[in-house]
Specification:
The protein has 202 residues and is of the alpha/beta class. The chain is 30% helix and 28% strand. Strand 5, helix 4 and strand 6 (99-102) form a beta-alpha-beta unit. The protein has 7 helices and 10 strands. It has helices spanning 32-41, 54-57, 63-72, 86-95, 104-108, 111-120, 181-191, and strands at residues 9-13, 16-21, 24-28, 47-51, 77-80, 99-102, 125-133, 166-170, 175-180, 195-201. Strands 1, 2, 3, 4, 5, 6, 7, 8, 9 and 10 form a 10-stranded mixed sheet that branches. The two termini are 30 Å apart.
Length: 202
């Protein structure tokens, strides 16, 4: 039996930890560094920071929060939100995080995951998947240009008569995509992700 690991995941907005439901009705929950220290003292195995509005607001990554946390906390740190290119990953790793979590950029360009894994090593590449129960044909969801690539077509969401289906969302749950969540996870592992961080959105 695999050992259980305790990994708190803190949502960050505007440099503060926030708490909400499905990324809405957010309330302030304190300073990220102080929260990280608390979980470190309590014996958490790892910590995750997710800047939940960075992609939606097209902001840069939270380097200053990462640097301050890395100086005071010694458990492994994963950071996600607003990662758009390989330079962003490099800057986060230099700032002190151990792994990066990628969602929106992976959907825009799945092969970005293989490029990141090749340059920095699979051990530090995590793909975040916000899975949402698929409702019928999901007429309001959007597809992706890369569906035309034969190697990626198997992740395309296809409604079925029976069985529960899950699609994925991006931009902090604001946009639904015509991508099958389970097949997407398999594809991300195939392209070089070391971990999947799965969030079920209801």
């Amino acid at each position: 039996m695999l050992a259980k690991r305790i990994i708190p995941c803190l949502d960050v907005k505007d440099g503060r930890v926030v708490k909400g439901v499905s990324f809405v009705n957010l309330v302030d929950a304190g300073d990220p560094v102080e929260n990280a220290k608390f979980y470190d003292e309590q014996g958490a195995d790892e910590l995750i920071f997710l800047d939940i509005t960075a992609s939606h607001e097209k902001r840069k990554i939270i380097i200053d929060v990462v640097e301050k946390t890395a100086n005071d906390v010694f458990m492994p740190l994963t950071v996600g939100g607003g990662i758009k290119n390989l330079d962003d990953i490099r800057d986060l790793l230099r700032a002190g995080c151990d792994k990066v979590s990628i969602n929106t950029t992976a959907v825009k360009d799945p092969l970005f995951i293989s490029k990141a894994a090749e340059r920095f090593g699979s051990q530090c590449i995590v793909v975040a998947i916000d899975a949402k129960r698929a409702d019928g044909a999901m007429s309001d969801a959007t597809g992706e240009d890369w569906f035309r690539d034969s190697s990626l077509k198997d992740v395309h969401y296809r409604p079925s008569a029976g069985g529960l289906k899950w699609a994925i969302s991006t931009h902090g749950g604001r946009k639904m995509k015509l991508i099958d969540a389970v097949q997407w996870a398999k594809k991300m592992e195939e392209l070089g992700a070391c971990e999947i961080m799965l969030t079920i959105m209801v």
